[in-house]
Automatic annotation (TrEMBL):
Gene3D superfamilies: Nitrile hydratase, beta subunit. Residues 15-96 form the Nitrile hydratase beta subunit-like N-terminal domain. Transmembrane segments: none annotated. It comes from Polaromonas vacuolata. InterPro entries: CN_hydtase_beta-like_N (IPR049054), CN_hydtase_beta_C (IPR042262), Elect_transpt_acc-like_dom_sf (IPR008990), Nitrile_Hydratase_acc_put (IPR023808). Residues 1-20 are annotated as: Disordered. GO terms for molecular function: nitrile hydratase activity. The keyword Transferase does not apply. The keyword Signal does not apply. Keywords: Lyase. This is High-molecular weight cobalt-containing nitrile hydratase subunit beta. Its EC number is 4.2.1.84.
Length: 120
């Protein structure tokens, strides 16, 4: 068995390889690249943060099938931005709730737009 195919068995693929399941996965990926390019963390720091999140998830029973990979990615990104004091847990939670509020008020099929009234 090809090791890459085994490691990515839960990830959706097309003929060119792995693809994102949801738009938020691509956005988390892009934010990570952007923050790295701005020098906010090294690839070594990123690899350590992602590895830690995956290990924590496995210790809590995640079967590691690849379908939760970007949840770990996002957790690693949130961990790094709070550790580096780029943001705080409270601020991240505030924006998570704001996006949830914006999504709830947005009709299905329409783009979700964050408005100042969503932020509390």
């Amino acid at each position: 068995m090809n090791l890459t195919n085994h490691l990515l068995s839960g990830q959706p693929k097309d003929d060119d390889g792995p693809v994102f399941r949801e738009p938020w996965e691509a956005q988390a990926f892009a934010m990570t690249l952007s923050l790295h390019e701005r020098g906010l963390f090294t690839w070594s720091e990123w690899a350590q943060a992602l590895t830690l999140q995956i290990q924590l998830a496995q210790a809590n029973g995640d079967p590691d099938l690849g379908d939760t990979y970007y949840q770990h990615w996002l957790a690693a990104l949130e961990s790094l931005v709070t550790t580096k004091k780029i943001s705080s847990q409270a601020e991240l939670k505030q924006y998570q709730l704001a996006w949830d509020h914006a999504a709830n008020r947005t009709p299905h099929g329409r783009p979700i737009e964050l408005q100042t009234t969503d932020i509390k």
